[in-house]
Amino acid sequence: MKVLFIGGTGLISSASTQLAVQQGIDLYLLTRGNRDACVPEEATLLHGDINNREEMKTLLKDKHFDVVVNWINFSPEDIERDIDYFSGKTDQYIFISTVATYQRPPAFYKLDESTPQHNPVWDYAVNKIASEERLIKEFRSNSFPITIVRPSHTYGETTIPFAITSGAHPWTLVDRIEKGKK
């Protein structure tokens, strides 16, 4: 299986990168080249800026991927760009969205695909919702092959998933333990 990760060296994606090559997947990583040291040697690196359309058209010319996973899409404009790049060039496009798209406050604390998407107070969530809507429209009108994933708590080898407060004060459970706090 030939798979393209756009990104692949970040918080969530780096573990998936390692697992993909361990599973024998023919993995390509499209990165800007800022974190190549953490890329497994079994992966094929494609250096480029996803937002540079001319560069990407050249880099992706004559390439087809069984799966494309974009770890770094944050807006409907990013989705438009990827639809342009990958229509007819992939059998499956995976969009990494977020659980933050779900209704706030939730009517019920068990979230699943039937939970309404409505979070008008956070631009990140608003943009992810609009991105999902654009992908669904493209699927319905042109059969663009999509999968939408909505991670909740994300962590990796460099980030412990125990944030106690906001992003403005990112104290972790470990930090509090080290300082003798409850």
Automatic annotation (TrEMBL):
Outline the extent of the NAD-dependent epimerase/dehydratase domain.
4-163
Pfam families associated with the record: Epimerase
The UniProt entry, under InterPro entries, shows: Epimerase_deHydtase, Lipid_A_modif_metabolic_enz, NAD(P)-bd_dom_sf
Q: Give the top-rank taxon of the lineage listed in the UniProt record for this protein.
A: Bacteria
Protein name (Swiss-Prot/TrEMBL): NAD dependent epimerase/dehydratase family protein
